[in-house]
Amino acid sequence: MSLHITGMIWARPTSDLEPQSGAAFQPDFIERITRAHEEGGFDRVLAGYWTNAADGFLVLAHAASVARRIHFLLAHRPGFVAPTLAARKIATLENLTGGRLALHVISGGEDADQRKDGDYADHAARYRRTDEFLTLLRRSWTETAPFDHAGEFYRVEQAYSDVRPLQKPGLPVFFGGASDSAIRVAGRHADVYALFGEPLADTAAMLRRVQAGVPEGRKLAFSWSNRPIIAATEKQAWEKARHIRERALAKLRLNGDAGLIAAGQAINSQRLVGLSQRGEVLDDRLWTAMAGVLGGRGNSTALVGTAEQVARAMLRYREIGVSHYILRGWDPLEDAVQYGRELIPLLRELAAGQDVGRVSVAAA
């Protein structure tokens, strides 16, 4: 089975542990964090989507200007850019990167956050809109003649795009979400289904649930997200984890928050907070405390241990069908360097041995 490792980049230094400072768009930081991932052996970097942050299209365009090997993953929320225009924008960026772009589609799990950009569609409508958006996106990339479309959310006449993705028939589409609506859309459109960092049993159950909705003939890969905490010894790694929690709580106090962040509306956020309530450590080294601190927002669980312990824990997910990992650190730039130096080479070495073992067993 293939192994793909994705990191994350921002337009400015960003952390759950330290207050933000400096300009909201810092080209030199984009260059440094992109190069750190490329030199560290990551396959891809993700530019996320936030309602208060720099535009991901331009962040990745700048990152592509300084990186020659690494691939890119663009987070995009349907609903704010017409799908035919989005198709041309995405295809243009993909051509600019030399075919090194994939798309991470985020329908939006929080009503209040969507309204910051003027979207008042409810949860169910957002997923119906995403379904239609992706249908039009792929048609724009593949239709050989102008086409018409009249749907619930979009209507176009004689739509056609001269700019097409270099990848055929189009970009790989990453997709996440734990609701029934999300899983239906994933089954129809996704190439990679992205899961947050839940325990093995929960992850396996979600894989079965998603696979049950994939039409016959379609293939779907799976991604698993985590924020590893590694150190020279297991004791030092857990000490580092506790220090990370203290720094996060100190930032909350600095911001005037009386306690932990409440769980959000998104089902995935609620699932991660639920993990923290089940136990601070699950599956031996999956640390859930920060999911409780951050209200389950984003990727907020961590495998804790030495590089080898964490790598072996990650490969247990590979055994149940995970082939992609999205990793980001608590100190994002410094941790990306550490992952590239200590974790990723070992992970690839152990994965190669895992594959050799499978071949040997099959031959026997």
Structural write-up:
The protein is of the alpha/beta class and 364 residues long. 46% of the residues lie in helices and 16% in strands. Strand 7 (173-176), helix 6 and strand 8 (192-195) form a beta-alpha-beta unit. Helix 1 (27-39) runs parallel beside helix 12 (332-363) and helix 3 packs across helix 5 (123-142). The longest helix is centred in the last third of the chain and has 32 residues, at 332-363.
Q: Report the principal-axis shape.
A: globular
CATH superfamily: Luciferase-like domain
Helix coverage percent of residues?
40-55%
The total of beta strands comes to 14
CATH topology description: TIM Barrel
Reported CATH architecture? Alpha-Beta Barrel
Strand content: 15-25%
Topology:
Layout: E1 4-9, H1 27-39, E2 44-47, H2 56-66, E3 71-76, H3 83-96, E4 101-105, H4 111-115, H5 123-142, E5 147-150, E6 155-159, E7 173-176, H6 180-189, E8 192-195, H7 200-211, E9 221-226, E10 229-230, H8 234-254, H9 267-278, E11 281-282, E12 286-287, H10 289-293, E13 302-305, H11 307-318, E14 324-327, H12 332-363
Parallel strand pairs: 1-2, 1-14, 2-3, 3-4, 4-7, 7-8, 8-9, 9-14, 10-13
Antiparallel strand pairs: 5-6, 11-12, 12-13
Helix pairs in contact: 1-2, 1-12, 2-3, 3-5, 5-6, 11-12
